[in-house]
Amino acid sequence: MEEDKIEQFEKEAIKIVKKGKLRDLDNLLDKIVEEEKCK
Amino acid sequence: MQITMENIGGITKPISVNLKKGLNIIKAPNATGKTSFIHALQTLVLPEKELKQHTEFLNDFENEGIVEIEINGRSTKRKLIRVGTELGVDGKSFYNNGLGLKASFLAFADPENKFLNAILRGESLDNFFEDFSDIKFYKQLEVWSEEKDYELAKELMAYRGLIENLEEKETEIKKLDGELVKLNKEKDKIEPTYNDLVKGKHDKKLNEFNKKRVKRDDLYSGIIQLKNKIQENKRIILELKDEIGILEKEFEEFKNDHPKYSTEMDGIKDKIGKIEKLEEQIEKEIEDLKNQKESTESSGEGKICNACGRKFARKERKKRLSKLNKELDKKEKEKLKARQKREELELDLDQLTEKVDKIFDENAKEIEYKQRKLNKNKQELDDRTENLEKKEVSIKVLEEEMKELRKDLDKRTNQIIEDLRKITESIGKINGQINYCEKEIERMEGDAEILKELQSKFDFIKRLMPYIKQKIKDMMDIVKNKFNQRITEVYKILGYKDFDKIEIDDMFKIQVRRKRAGRMITQELNRLSTSERVTIGVITMLAGKEEYLSDFPFFVLDEVTTAYDPERFEKIINYIQKHTPYTIVTTFSSVGEKIQIEYGK
C-alpha cells in the first residue's frame, strides 16, 4: 500500500515536472500524505 | 528528398539539393558550403531553444535565412531571423520537436557533435543518457525531494522544541490537581465554622469584615486572571520578536543570496541598451538613405549626385531610386524588428521587476503585520500591568482595613479567619498555575498536531528519496544496456575483428576489450588511435539511432569522420544504407568550385 502511494506520487510528480511547475509539487505532497493518512 | 536553402552560413544564393534514397555524396572543395549544408539540415532538426544558440547558422551579412525540406510529399519551412545580436526562429522542426536534440546527437557524425566528441575524449556519457529518456525529469524531482527533506527537518526541529515540555506540563498539572483537592478538603472543613460565625453571632464587625473579604477574594481572582494574561502577552511578545528576527534575516538572505535576479535584470537591461543603440544606428542609416533619396529625386538629369559623385542618367536615376527604396524598406523592417524585440525585453524586465518587488513587498508586509501584533501585545501588557498594580493597591487597602477590623474580634474567630485566608490564597495560586498550565498544554497540543503533519510528510519524503535514486539508476542502466546490446549487434554486423567487446561501463564511459599477447585486457577509449575512436563513436551513434530514432530519415557523415580508415567507413556506410533511407556523406573534392552530388557510389 505504501509503495502504491510512492508510485502514485511519482506518476503525478513527473507530469508536473515536465510542465515545469515545480511549485505544484508541494500541493501534491500535501494531497498524497493526506490520502495516505485517511487509509 | 529536396533541401532548399538561402543565406545559411556561406551559402547566400538560393540552392536546391536533391537527395535520393541510398547514398548521397556531397563533394566540394574547402569553404564552398559543405558545413553550411550540414547547418541547413540541423536548422530543420534542432528544437527552437537549441537552434537559437547557433547564430553562426545565419549568414553574417544577411538578416534572414530560409531552409525548406520536402520529404514524403510533405514540405516544412524554417526561417532564421537576425534580431539585434540574437537569432530568432520561425517555423517548427520537420521531425518530432521533442526528439530534435536526440537526432542532432545520434544522426550527425560531424566534428561539432557534442555526443561524438565526448566519446572521442573518453568522457562519461551520463549527461547525454539523461536526454535519451525521462531521467532529466527524475533528476529534477530528486533535487526537489532533497530540498524538501532539508526544509522539513528544519521545521520538525523547531516544532519539537516548542512541545518538548508537554509531558512535564501534564505531570505538573496532575500534581497541582492533587494539591487542589487536598486544599479544598481543608477549606470545606473550616468554611462551615466560619459561615456559622458570620450568620450566627450577628457581629457587626465580623459582617463588615466578611464583606471586605468577599471583595478582596474577587479582586484576588481578578489578579490571578490578569497575571495569566500578562504571562501570555509576554510569551507572544517573545515569539513575535523571534519570528520578526527570522523574517528580517530571511529577507536579508534573499537580498544577499539571490543576486541572480539582479544579474538577470542587468542582463536584460544590457540587451535593451544594445538594441537601443542598434535602433539609433538604424535610424541614422534611414535618415542617411532618405537624404540620398531626396538628393537623387531633386537632382536633374546630367547633374552630379551629391552622395556618390557620379553623373545622373535617367535610367541610372530610376535604378538608384529603386535600390534606395529597397534599402529603406529593409531598414524599416529591421527597425520594426528591433523595436519589437526591445518591447519584448522591456516586458520581461517589467515582469521580473514585479516578481522581485512582490517578494520584497510580501516580506515587508508580513514583518509589518507581525510588528503591529507585537505593538498590540505590548500595549495590552502595559494596560494589564497597570490594572494589576491598581488591583494590588486596592487589596492592600482592603487588607489593612480587614486587619483593623480583626483587632475587635475574638482569638478563635481570628484563628479561623487566618486559616481560611491562607487556604483561599493557596487555592487561588494553584488555580492560577493550573490555568496557565492548561493554556500551555492547549498550545502545545496544537503544535503537536502540526508536528504530526510534518512528520508524515518527512517520512514520505524519506521513503521517496531512495525510490527516486534507484529509479534514476535503473533508467540509466536501461539506457546503458540498450546501447551495449545495440553496439555489440552493430559491431558484429560490420564484421570488425579489432576488438573482442565494446561496452559502456558503470561510469558510463566506453571501454574496449581486446587480446594482447594472449591476454584479454580492458582499455579506456582514450588509449586508442583517433581512427579507432572515430569508428567506435560512429558505431555508438548508430546503435543509439537504431534504438531511439529508428524512423529518422537520414544519417550524416561529415568528411572529418570519413577521412579515417576508408575500409572501415565503407562498411559503416553500407550498414547505414541498409537501416536509414538517406545516407549523406560529405567529402573533400579538389575538382570544381561548387558543391556536387554523387548518388549511390
Task: Give the CATH class of the domain at 2-123 and 509-599 in chain B.
Answer: Alpha Beta
Structural class of chain A: mainly alpha
User: Which regions of chain B are unreliable across 5 or more consecutive residues at pLDDT < 50?
Assistant: none
Number of helices of chain B: 14
| Oligomer status | heterodimer
Largest interface by residue count? A-B, 18 and 17 residues
Rg of chain A, please? 10 Å
Helix-strand pattern of chain B: EEEHHEEEHEHHHHHHHHEEEHEHHEE
Q: Approximately what portion of the residues of chain B adopt beta-strand conformation?
A: 5-15%
Widest β-sheet, arrangement of strands of chain B: 2-1-4-5-6
* Main sheet attributes: strand count, strand direction, barrel closure of chain B: 5 strands, antiparallel
Number of strands of chain B: 13
Distance between the termini of chain B: 18 Å
CATH architecture of the domain at 2-123 and 509-599 in chain B: 3-Layer(aba) Sandwich
Q: Biggest sheet of chain A, in brief? A: none
The structural domain count of chain A equals 1
Task: Please name the defining characteristics of this protein.
heterodimer, A: mainly alpha, B: 601 residues, alpha+beta, Rossmann fold, Helix Hairpins, five-stranded mixed beta sheet, elongated
Task: Describe the protein in words.
- The complex is a heterodimer of chains A (39) and B (601).
- Chain A is mostly helical and 39 residues long.
- Chain A has one domain (2-38).
- Chain A is built from 2 helices and no strands.
- The mean pLDDT of chain A is 87.
- With 601 residues, chain B is α+β, with helices and mostly antiparallel strands.
- Among the domains of chain B are: 2-123 and 509-599, Rossmann fold (3-Layer(aba) Sandwich), CATH 3.40.50; 210-408, Helix hairpin bin (Helix Hairpins, Orthogonal Bundle), CATH 1.10.287.
- Chain B has 14 helices and 13 strands.
- Chain B has helices at residues 34-45, 48-51, 100-106, 114-120, 126-129, 135-163, 166-200, 204-257, 259-298, 314-406, 411-494, 530-548, 559-562, 566-579; strands at 2-6, 15-18, 22-28, 64-71, 74-83, 86-90, 108-109, 501-504, 510-516, 519-524, 554-557, 582-588, 596-599.
- In chain B, the strands form 3 sheets. Chain B has a 5-stranded antiparallel β-sheet with strand order 2-1-4-5-6, with helices on both faces.
- In chain B, strand 1 (2-6) and strand 2 form a beta hairpin.
- In chain B, helix 6 packs antiparallel against helix 11 and helix 9 (259-298) packs antiparallel against helix 10.
- Chain B is elongated.
- Chains A and B meet through helix 1 and helix 2 of A and helix 6 and helix 11 of B.
